[in-house]
Write a structure and sequence with these properties.
481 residues, alpha+beta, Creatine Amidinohydrolase, Chain A, domain 1, Creatine Amidinohydrolase, 2 domains, 5-stranded mixed beta sheet, 3-stranded antiparallel beta sheet, 15 strands, 13% strand, binds glycine, binds manganese (II) ion
């Protein structure tokens, strides 16, 4: 377990944390050379005009370094690591500033050897000639793919085929179990996210634009010197699961779905969704659907503990949802049979949650090894195919729990015309809800030795808590609340 006390004391022991993480991965990999590539700045239209930079999370985990254009080689047989960085030329110093020296970067990461970035290939080539395996993780950006292809003198297809399975498995194993220091970071991120959500509830009024609320959320994160952990979903069209637009106008009677989170100072994510009434008061039918989503969410949190698979939590949550939807006349028949057939996915077409850590969908770049392990293939069934975490839960996992009920007009129309799951779905009743929108409630939990713990502050969630938060006035200070 990483020592949280020395970790937080002005970061004194951070080099030791990264050194230990690298020691562990080198020992488990055993031989060959491990190539770690940091991310590069991505140009919007020319080199000097770039998108906001975010370090590769694996690189961040093993070095703590958030600067662009870094690389590291780890040598399992000698137990050594070399950090590679470019010394800035005068043009770079003039335009971007001098930055931290390579020696300072290496000290912060606990790395003893440094070299110029242009020397990286000179270390890889002899290793390749000696027939030593070069381990690397799958590159998710074209620029990283291009860099690895150049270093290994291979085509992108060969690079894709040559990713190191053992490195993927061991990194996934190591990063899946969070240390106390990491949990502290996630909870720190959640303290800012709490403010983002409370401010959004207090500020929303009929006549506002979604963009005003998404701007407010972003301003709170930026004023704390934080990035957001993903593009926020701030919309009155909650049934569009990852709605990327903020052009909608808020109207009385509508629901606003806010799925947003800040990062911690060290880049850890938070991922919270709340859905609240634009006018501050839920209508009776909104209360009915909200109550169901809330019950499913609370029951799923209760079920999450070591040993249970997240697929079983997902399935149990779906069954509870069907039981409740039957009482509203939207579904019929046996809940277990309905869930097995996938009928509930008309209303809940995604999974109950996913891993979270340095990435909001933690390590999703490594594929299903993270959420499914080696043996279990992911289901192809509609709905279930979006379950990102299925395997048995272990102490130290951090997950989201995020059920939702959505009325997606195009999907309802498609299924109704195809007579899909007619024994389980009461389409004439569903028609009455076609313009309802969607509700999702999402929290972040830590799996403990005996159950789970809700992370971060309590963000308004019950109907009275949400209505109370909506009725507050935004205070004059900045950032709000
Ligand atoms: N916060 C977006 C998602 O979990 O997909
Ligand atoms: Mn999520």
């Amino acid at each position: 377990m990483e020592n949280i006390v020395s970790h937080t004391a002005a970061g004194h022991n951070r080099p030791e944390i990264y050194r230990k993480r690298r020691d562990r991965i080198r020992e488990t990999i055993g031989d060959g050379v491990i190539l770690w590539l940091g991310n590069s700045l991505q140009p919007r239209n020319y080199e000097g005009n770039t998108y906001p930079f975010r370090q590769n999370s694996h690189f961040l985990y093993y070095t703590g370094l958030s600067e662009p254009d870094l690389a590291m080689l780890s040598f399992p047989d000698s137990g050594k690591d070399i950090l590679f960085a470019a010394s800035p030329d005068m043009d770079t110093v003039i335009w971007n500033g001098p930055g931290r020296s390579i020696a300072d970067l290496a000290w912060d990461a606990g790395i003893d050897a440094v070299e110029e970035l242009k020397q990286l290939g000179n270390h890889i080539e002899p290793a390749g000639k000696q027939g030593r395996m070069i381990h690397y993780l799958p590159p998710y950006s074209a620029s990283s793919m291009y860099r690895i292809a150049g270093l290994l003198k291979a085509s992108p297809d060969e690079i894709k085929a040559g990713v190191s399975q053992i490195l993927m498995e061991e990194v996934s194993k190591q990063r899946s179990v969070k240390s106390e220091a990491e949990i502290e970071q996630i909870e720190e991120a959640l303290s800012v996210t709490d403010r983002m959500h409370r401010a959004c509830m207090a500020a929303a009024r009929p006549g506002m634009r979604e963009s005003e609320l998404s701007g407010l959320i972003q301003a709170i994160a930026l004023s704390k010197d934080r990035q957001q952990s993903y593009n926020p979903i701030v919309t009155v069209r909650g049934e569009v699961l990852h709605n990327n637009s903020y052009e909608g106008m808020l109207q009385g009677g509508q629901l606003l779905l806010n799925d947003s989170g800040a990062e911690s100072p060290m880049g850890y994510a938070s991922d919270i969704t709340r859905t609240f009434p634009v006018s501050g008061r839920f209508t009776d039918i909104q209360k009915e659907i909200y109550r169901i989503v809330l019950r499913v969410q609370l029951d799923a949190v209760d079920l999450a503990k070591p040993g249970i698979t997240y697929r079983d939590v997902h399935t149990a949550a779906c069954r509870i949802m069907v039981e409740e939807l039957r009482t509203l006349g939207l579904m019929k028949g046996d809940p277990s049979e309905a869930v097995e057939a996938g009928a509930h996915a008309l209303f809940f077409p995604h999974g109950i949650g996913h891993m979270m850590g340095l990435d909001v969908h933690d390590m999703e770049d490594l594929g299903d090894i993270v959420g499914y392990g080696k043996k279990e293939p992911r289901s192809g069934q509609f709905g279930l195919k979006y379950l990102r975490l299925s395997r048995p839960l272990e102490p130290g996992f951090v997950l989201t729990v995020e059920p939702g009920i959505y009325f997606i007009p195009a999907l309802i129309e498609r299924w109704r015309s195809e007579k899909q799951h007619e024994v389980f779905i009461n389409y004439s009743r569903v028609e009455e809800f076609v313009s309802f929108g969607g509700i999702r409630i999402e929290d972040n939990i830590l799996i403990t030795s005996s159950g789970s713990r809700l992370l971060g502050p309590k963000i308004p969630k019950t109907i009275p808590e949400v209505e109370e938060a909506c009725s507050r006035e935004l205070r004059g200070e900045w950032p709000p609340m």
